[in-house]
Amino acid sequence: MSQYLAPLNDMKFQLFDVWQVQQHWQEVPALAEQLEPETAEAILQEAAKICEQQIAPLSQQADMTGVQLHDGVVTTPEHYQANYRAWCEGGWAGFSGDPEYGGMGMPKVLSMMLDEMMCSADIAFSLYPGLTAGACVTLQQYATDEVKALYLPKLYSGEWSATMCLTESHAGSDLGLMRSKAEPQQDGSYRISGSKIFITAGEHDLTENIIHLVLAKLPDAPAGSRGISLFIVPKLIPDAAGNPGQRNALHCGSIEHKMGIHASATCVMNFDGATGYLLGEPHKGLAAMFTMMNYERLAMGSQGLGAAERAWQNALAYAHDRLQGRITERDANKAEPIIRHPDVQRMLHTIQSLNEAGRSFSTWVALQLDKAKYSGDEQGQQLANLLTPIAKAFMTDLGLECTVHAQQVFGGHGYIKEWGMEQLVRDVRIAQIYEGTNGIQAADFMLRKVAGDKGAVLLALFAEIEHWLDAANPQHQQLAAYLQRSSVLTQSLLQRAAENKALLADYAYEFMTLNGYLLYGYMWLKQVDALERAEIAIETKHQKQQMADFYFKRILPRAEALLLIMQE
Amino acid sequence: MSQYLAPLNDMKFQLFDVWQVQQHWQEVPALAEQLEPETAEAILQEAAKICEQQIAPLSQQADMTGVQLHDGVVTTPEHYQANYRAWCEGGWAGFSGDPEYGGMGMPKVLSMMLDEMMCSADIAFSLYPGLTAGACVTLQQYATDEVKALYLPKLYSGEWSATMCLTESHAGSDLGLMRSKAEPQQDGSYRISGSKIFITAGEHDLTENIIHLVLAKLPDAPAGSRGISLFIVPKLIPDAAGNPGQRNALHCGSIEHKMGIHASATCVMNFDGATGYLLGEPHKGLAAMFTMMNYERLAMGSQGLGAAERAWQNALAYAHDRLQGRITERDANKAEPIIRHPDVQRMLHTIQSLNEAGRSFSTWVALQLDKAKYSGDEQGQQLANLLTPIAKAFMTDLGLECTVHAQQVFGGHGYIKEWGMEQLVRDVRIAQIYEGTNGIQAADFMLRKVAGDKGAVLLALFAEIEHWLDAANPQHQQLAAYLQRSSVLTQSLLQRAAENKALLADYAYEFMTLNGYLLYGYMWLKQVDALERAEIAIETKHQKQQMADFYFKRILPRAEALLLIMQE
To answer: Which parts of the sequence belong to the Acetyl-CoA dehydrogenase-like C-terminal domain (chains A, B) (predicted)?
Structure first.
């Protein structure tokens, strides 16, 4: 059984020492009123308690039990009821919600940390509140006040949950091929018909109602993805008083049997002329859904990090406990803990150096979103747009790599279910696939986010980082050299693409990954830079420097291969 | 349900065009008599039939059913009986066995191909005959004629199977810590007591008897791994006529629940004063067991390749079938097969270029073993020793990478059990762990195989390859440059290790991996070189060249990062 303790000290270090988010909070009246580092610490401690003590200890049981479907009713593992109640009673369901409708209005930098803890504790469980939080973002932005008042309080309290219904079996991520239809009714509502697959939490027993956000085409829809509209389709249609009323014409047709996240209900949802309500403008559903998708994509990165953090903690503990082999000991009957084996250290350091850079990276991205949301900071929004696909794809790729390393530390025991390490590998694998595969993220990064503005935002970011770098520091210089070569490469790729249309799509994955490694290098330098002002244990400072050194020596050179691949 | 067709054309190309194994066969009377390329082709075709038609179609069912333990009896999936019968009736169980005792005496270059096909078809099933074949190698080498005559014919016919019992729960790969005991009896036999874990095929219902090769310590054993002896401990003790007689005092205590290879019985085996017979000399059991381990380690590489081959075939077929997105098509309602997406091609090409180099590599290593075995070629044995840890570790690491890429091509469907892709990932993962973790392989390569002779064999190999390379060919030059840098690096590491003892163990993994990529580069150049003389389809030649180009452009640069990491 794998253990978990939330890395609160590192979270505080990232928030208050590295990124000094308290400076941004002070600039925003809505945040300054309720948030100081001490309050935030107390919040994180409370969330950690639930994750460590209630959710994490039963994640393995959830994996073994999975979800069951009988006569359209989906049953989750028994303890999920208690998990969910505890989560809602703690007020966590509405943590980042609009205070006007009962949300807590908390910034993304904190909700990201919650996401990570939840994903360490149990990815499958995290998806039930996670999908709801994403749907709320879309409702906050696109719904009328009346609709918000009807749905948001119930979703923030966790009494109701929500889904996003995009995928159809023949179309996958190609939403333009969608066949689901919406027919306008005399009362202003719509009749929604179609079948959606891979609907996370499409049906379950944790809430009294489920609000589906469904993409479908109106009769007069233009062809392709420009003709898609978004609809609110509740499982139980709210009555005039806002209570769950009539059962809507929709049902769960089947659930998928998957490699992992067994306790997450992945449903085929059939809409048989179900009553739906248009959300946002006709034919503009995709943009609205992307609000939700972008929110989810950042949370995906936390899945990679969360699983890798728990994997690392357990591998580290195992490496200290397990006696095998002799490194310094000469007595043939005495074994030493395997942590003294250099190769075990290599694996543990690889995970730790990637995890702590990842936590820094997600804090940085979240801070940009907060600046955009609370301060209307255009640059923050641009940066968040640029970095979101990296947060999704790069962090989940590393999530797989790191959980596999951690499993490897356990030797044969890593392959046995009992120890819980193989579950982390199986569970985290989905994060590279859903919410847009990592290949789609890479294309989004290269084609839209970089080529879309001729590299302006990326190159400006590089220039800003280079400006910050210290010419007298060898690691700073090492990163500066990489950034300069990457700038040249970026410009060269954009030029060469004029003559070779497929070039950018062809190199998209390597390009996304290259930028991931460079920015993680920046994260390590930012962390080292923060060590002076941080009031943290001297051993922690020592370890941070050691991990920075490890990253620059053993991980960052991967950028060299990627540069070489893409050079002309 | 995933499909499988044995890659017979590529196997023939590797055997007869690239490595021209027929030249070696002609030099060896025992082989020249019975083997010509045509016979070998017919043999491979027959093996392919069983793998394609009988074993592969039910591998998913085997995964779902798994093995069951009740009252010490292990039940395998029902169809495994038929699989096993077909395998034995085809004579495959004794394929590489000693003809004097009923084996077919076939060379390793062919049995490696069988291993690959079996692993594509069903890794879990492949382990039952696989362990037996490994045990036979040890018996052939260390048993007396009398013992050989008693056991080998039954093992070659498949009537009996065999195991290797090394691991104890507190010791893992640290065999020196072993506690199992062997007490000498008056009749020359021994009473074996102890508990072994992770015993593949330790108990099952496919054969009438199971012969355990058990490591244990004699009462006068020196401490550590120099005090270990090897014993034959049959489940049913053969009577005077060689038929299974009295039940021995050993039993399966439990079976493991694992991430994958569910239908392989991974047993805890308890020996309660069981009757055993010394195999080889007292205290020299480890060397004898290593004969078996080395055989198995090569077969592990085939597990990585076999799983990746099947994964690639299915991903390729899916990419042709699946319509999604538009690359050249402008009509928003018309989707194109995803194989036209450059990123899907990148994944497929990555797998193909690694698989075909891997098949070339394992043929090369197997040929060295054949030269050593049939022609007493000392250089062949040295080369096989050097390359075995790379075959085990590098090929299984790539097995995971490639099955993950193939699963990714399927998008969400890759995560669903129904499609069979996630099973390949789960099944292949064990190959990085068992038979000595890949970290242990890397240490073996760096510390024993390279540092052990001050780099002599490795550097001589590099020199030989460089000598063969064509100075006028840019890809040849590219590889030559890498080999020169790697030679310098190897010498530098060995020198630096004099002052820093942990250095070699620290860099062992990167060093092993670096050599893997360079040798795969050599494999591609050897394949391209063979294209002129090969009588193969022009499209195949074109594809081979394309894959070589892809490897040199997109994969080999990974060596750059590894060189950089290890440089001073």
So the answer is: 461-566
A209 in the same domain as A124: no
Q: Judge whether A464 lies within some domain.
A: yes
Tens-place pLDDT, residues A270-314: 999 999 999 999 999 988 888 777 777 889 999 999 999 999 999
Residue A311, domain member (yes or no): no
The CA–CA distances, whole Å, from B421 to B114, B407, B443 equal 22, 5, 32
pLDDT at A79 over 70: yes
- Nearest residue to B37 (alpha-carbon basis) of B534, B568, B563: B534
Number of domains in chain A: 3
Domain boundary among B153, B169, B196: B153
Rounded CA gap, B368 and B383, in Å? 7
Domain boundaries, position A205: 160-283
Same structural domain, A146 and A199: no
Question: Between residues 430 and 459 of chain B, which touch chain A (CB distance below 8 Å)?
Answer: 430, 432-434, 437-439, 442-443
Whether B370 is covered by a domain: the verdict is no
Could you say which of A226, A324, A508 has the minimum Cβ distance to residue B172? A324
Q: Does A559 touch chain B (CB under 8 A)?
A: yes
Of B123, B153, B183, the residue at which a domain comes to its end is B153
Any chain B CB within 8 A of the CB of A398?
Answer: no
Query: Which residue among B52, B116, B296, B435 is the active-site one?
Result: B435
- Could you report the predicted ipTM of this complex, rounded to two decimals? 0.97
User: pLDDT by residue (tens digit) across A318-365?
Assistant: 999 998 877 766 676 778 899 999 999 999 999 999 999 999 999 999
* DSSP-assigned beta bridge partners for residue A250: A271
Cα of B160 vs its chain's centroid, Å: 22
Gap between the Cα atoms of B427 and B399, Å rounded: 10
Which H helix or E strand runs over A11? helix A8-12
Q: Is A61 within 8 Å of chain B by CB? A: no
Q: Is residue A230 part of a domain?
A: yes
